[in-house]
Each structure stands twice: as structure tokens, then as C-alpha cells.
Amino acid sequence: MKTIIKNKMRTFIMLILPVFFVITLANAQEEKEKDKRPVRAPFESALLLDGQTIIVPTKNTLEFDIQHRFGTMKNKGKDLFGIYAPSNIRLGLTFTPIENLAIGFGSTKDDMLQDFSIKYAILKQTRSWSIPLSLTYFGNAVVDTGEDDRYDRNVQRWSYHHELMIATKINSKLSIQLTPSYSHYNGVDTLYTNDMLAVSLAGRYKLTPQMSIIAGYSLQLQDHDAPDFDLQPNLCFGIEISTSSHAFQIFAGNFSALVPQRNLMYNENSFGDGEILVGFNITRLWNF
């Protein structure tokens, strides 16, 4: 049954791709304005729910991120729906030394993961729709520094993630983003595959200048070899409140890790089985 549902979800993603591009091209043809400046704020932050957005802060901007995930709600009132369950947190710093390029470092509580990242805005959507899409690359390298006897050599502690974000701001309220990705783990594990292809779809709809509804879905395009491992996609939704230098997002979803490859490779939390958790992101920017 779960295989059927997963196949349907995969079909849905594949069907939405042409719709995504048709909407984009249609708006590009209808727009008569000749303003070639980039569109204003397709997203409010470089983070959206459990993933990145196409946003790269302006040159000489320092970004501080706090990402927090409570425990799942499966124990209900015993731990106040996960609020008092063991939680996961990531603290991250990102700096933009030159226009369109950001470099970052983060540290995650679970497994003491240390991540190093790079993000580059390849293409920016223009207000005239002469360029109808934004295109940004994001990649990271993560090292597991926790105590673990699974690793024979230090090189096996490393994992890597690459993604290409394709986004369009359809109008002043609605922005959507499609993200194909590839993750790789150096560690050799006979139970699992070392590589994972995935695709994510996320969007934001502004209710007011400061508040938006946000939602996303991430689907792995591969399965693990282990028959008892139930790899699960992610469904998440929530709200975002933002100012010129802050963004706060609170949402529900079923990803609990805070680096993308860990979520995509190892998530067994099932949204349908109630293994849902509350998460929040806080972003603060400083311009120098």
C-alpha cells in the first residue's frame, strides 16, 4: 500500500513539472513591463521549512540561523505532544563575501554534525519576466563528529549534498520553488544505499506584508535495500512572520534532522501515522 502511495506521489511530482513551467512562460508573455531588475523578495529568507530557498543575501551580509525541531507527537499528552520530548537544534552562520555567493557553517545537536556549505545565485528572475525563473545552487559537506563505532576510517564520517533550486515569483503574493537534489554518504553500510536522488516542492503565499502561509513536500526517488527500513517523504506546512532583518517560521512536518542529506536518507517518521513534529526557524541578518 505504501509503495502505491509513493508511486502516486512520484507521478504527482512529475505531472506538476510541466504545469510549473507553463505558468511561468504564460506570465512571461503577458508581462509588458521592461524593468530588468530582479524581482523583489521571492522569499523572505534563505531558509524555508526544512530546506533552502533561492535567496542569497546581499554582499557583506551575516546571517544567523536557529533551527529547532521538537519530538514527534506520537506520545500525545505524555510529553505534551513532543514539546518535552528530546529535541534537535542547529545553529548556523552564513556570510556573503561577494555578490551572489554565500558560504556557511553550522552545528547540529544530534550526532554532533558539523556542516560546511556554499550557495550561489546563478540566475535571477526579472520584474519584466524577460528572465522568468531564478536558479540557485546549494551544496554542503557534513562530518559526523559524534562517537560511533560504525566508522572504520574518518573519511566514512563525511556526507555531501547538492541541489539546484528553480523558483518563480508568480505574483506579489505567490512564489513556488522546485528543487531536485543528490546526496552521497561515504560510509559503507550494507543495509542502505549510499546515494539518494530526491525532489522537493515548496511555496509561500503572502497574507499580509509581514505574514505568509508556507508549505512543502519532499520525495525520495529511491529506496533503501533493507526490507525493514521504511523511508518516508516529508510533508510540512506552517506560517512565516518576517521583517527586513528577521524571519520566524513555525510549522508541522515529519522531518526531524536538520541537514538535508540526513533527512532524505534516513527519515522514517510517517506523517500518515501521526509521527509529526513541530519545528521553527529563526533567521537574523546583519549588514556590514
Which features would summarize this protein structure in a list?
288 residues, mainly beta, Porin, twelve-stranded antiparallel β-barrel, two-stranded antiparallel sheet, 2 helices, 14 strands
Characterize this entry briefly.
By secondary structure, this protein is mainly beta. Helices cover 12% and strands 45% of the residues.
Task: Please render the helix and strand layout as text.
Blueprint: H1 2-30, E1 47-48, E2 51-52, E3 61-72, E4 88-98, E5 101-108, E6 113-123, E7 134-144, E8 158-169, E9 174-185, E10 195-206, E11 211-220, E12 234-242, E13 246-253, H2 260-266, E14 277-287
Antiparallel strand pairs: 1-2, 3-4, 3-14, 4-5, 5-6, 6-7, 7-8, 8-9, 9-10, 10-11, 11-12, 12-13, 13-14
Describe the model:
The chain has two helices and 14 strands. It has 288 residues and is mostly beta strands. The strands form two sheets. It has a twelve-stranded antiparallel β-barrel with strand order 3-4-5-6-7-8-9-10-11-12-13-14. Strand 5 (101-108) and strand 6 (113-123) form a beta hairpin. It has a single domain, classed as monomeric porin ompg (Porin), CATH 2.40.160. The model has no long low-confidence stretch (mean pLDDT 89). The N and C termini lie far apart (54 Å).
